[in-house]
Amino acid sequence: MKILLASLLFIYATLVFAYEREFIVTDIISDQSLQIQRIDKQIEVAPGDILAIYSHQTKLVLGYARVASITDSSDFFIAIIETHNKNGLIRPENYLRKLDLTKINNDIPARYDLTYRAESNVAAKYRPLVYAGLVQGMTASNLNKKEWILGPSVLAYGLTSRTQLDINLASAIFGVANLAVKNKLIDNDDYELSVENGFQYYHTSKKGSYQFTGNLDMASNSNFKSYAKFKLFTKKPEDQSLNNSEEYTRDLNLELQFSYGYIFSNWNQLIFGPKIDVNKKNVGGVVAYYIVEKNINTMFGVSSTDFSELRLGKQAYLVNLDFWWRF
């Protein structure tokens, strides 16, 4: 019996070893490129395939690499590092596994440093959050080229990986024609910075308004992220939409927003933080939970334009539900 158990244990350990070590790093060619050896001969690879890099000591995912070049006559190929957790050093003996990020059944615990930002056919589940709902608005991340977001409150399209067009459908329903152009200025492993120029036309009062928004997203660590936003906008009349529905008579108005995000191991997220209306001297905020699936995001939350108003309504507290497709 002991011999049988020992044999089964040996077979199990061998299978686990083979499963984990589909590929192995044999050489560090440069800061961005690796030489990889294929251990499991049955696994096919081609240029463009995505591999998860694991530490052979801690078993944690260090980042992603993309196959750059391969030959049929060799089990060695070159891969380019696409994302890398700076707290972990990539070195020879690290092992890799092939991933299909177009599907959502990959056994990869979520971390902000493992979101995939390169232009590729990757499920929205693994991409940075671009839109955070009607109250929270856009983040500093952009859609990729020819990528769409569509929901009851938003329509957005990626002209390029750095420029996207946005329409607030919730405002448009109430007669406020609008269009925003968002440009990403900086994008690296530590932070993203974007600016948005928005234009609104109020058909009833025949007035227009201009809005400039700056977004800064910063990774605090693997599971926490901070979102900073400031809006400068010209005078505008009152409208019936749920967001920014009050009248502003000054030539220039300022709104500040600071939020913190936490990503759960299943890739769902929690975002919360205050929102300050400088001109009206109101302090509100939002807390929201995001269910992130392959191409659909669903948001549940509570928001307030003024914490001191203990009632329900557009100028006090609102229960929020929003959802959108990203494709």
Structural write-up:
- The protein is mostly beta strands and 327 residues long.
- It has helices spanning 2-20, 169-173; strands at residues 23-28, 33-38, 50-54, 61-70, 76-84, 95-99, 148-150, 154-158, 163-168, 176-187, 191-202, 207-219, 224-233, 253-263, 269-277, 282-292, 296-304, 317-326.
- It has 2 domains: 2-99, Elongation Factor Tu (Ef-tu), domain 3; 124-326, monomeric porin ompg (Porin, Beta Barrel).
- It is 7% helix and 46% strand.
- The strands form 2 sheets. The chain has a 12-stranded antiparallel barrel. It has a 6-stranded antiparallel beta barrel with strand order 1-2-5-4-3-6.
- A hairpin with a 3-residue loop joins β16 (282-292) and β17 (296-304).
- The protein is elongated, with a radius of gyration of 24 Å.
